[in-house]
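Dear colleague,

Thank you for sharing your sequence with our group. We've completed the structure prediction you requested, and as agreed, I am returning the results in plain text so they can be pasted directly into your records. Please verify that the sequence below matches your submission; if there's any discrepancy, let me know and we will rerun it promptly.
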Amino acid sequence: MRRAHCGLKGLLIGIMVMTSSGCSDAIADAETKYEIVKKSGDKREICERSKKLVELYLANNMEEEYLKQKAASEEECTFTTEELLGI
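Please find the predicted structure tokens below.
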């Protein structure tokens, strides 16, 4: 029984490591996509990607990144009337 407990503990640690690396992979993927979209100049898409990064940083307790991206997002998600109307 003791041996099974150690195996279960190792399995749980492995799952935790995989989960945490999955989060960092998701963040890295979102950051890459955000940088690509920024080059396109499409303000609406830039705003959407920026907001996704804000949410990912907050969900992963990355305070410094969250605050920096939130400020950037507020600027990137500010549209003129013409931009909103597609003029």
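Summary note from our side: Residues 54 and 68 are 9 Å apart (CA to CA).

Kind regards,
the structure core
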